[in-house]
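Postdoc handover notes: sequence design on the structure in folder B. Input tokens:
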């Protein structure tokens, strides 16, 4: 079963394959930073520390918001980061994430 680990903690959560990252952790009592929960505000941005290949590809709405988030960040720093939205990203394997402020 896929799992999600929170970087810098010992927390790891088992999730169902294909489940949305935010929803899976919320159901287990871990509330990640969030806003609209519909992919448009970017408040749920996370950096994928490990396992970016274990998330389904971003859809158009998610990608547009990620592009906006990147535009707010230092270009050098953001180029090196794998940014996803926890309210849209679907998990297919083990990932380690860190909320991005
Ligand atoms: S909570 Fe707004 S984009 Fe995810």
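Designed sequence:
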């Amino acid at each position: 079963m896929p799992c999600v680990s929170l970087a810098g903690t010992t927390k790891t959560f088992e999730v169902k394959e294909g489940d949305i990252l935010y929803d899976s952790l919320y159901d287990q009592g871990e509330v990640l930073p969030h806003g609209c929960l519909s992919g448009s505000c970017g408040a749920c941005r996370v950096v994928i520390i490990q396992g970016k290949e274990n998330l389904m590809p971003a859809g158009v709405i998610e990608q547009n918001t990620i592009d906006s988030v990147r535009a707010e960040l230092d270009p050098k720093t953001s180029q090196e980061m794998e940014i996803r939205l926890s309210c849209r990203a679907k998990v297919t394997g083990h990932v380690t994430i860190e909320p991005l402020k």
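Context for whoever picks this up: The beta strands are 3-6, 12-14, 45-50, 83-85, 95-99. Don't rerun without checking with the PI first.
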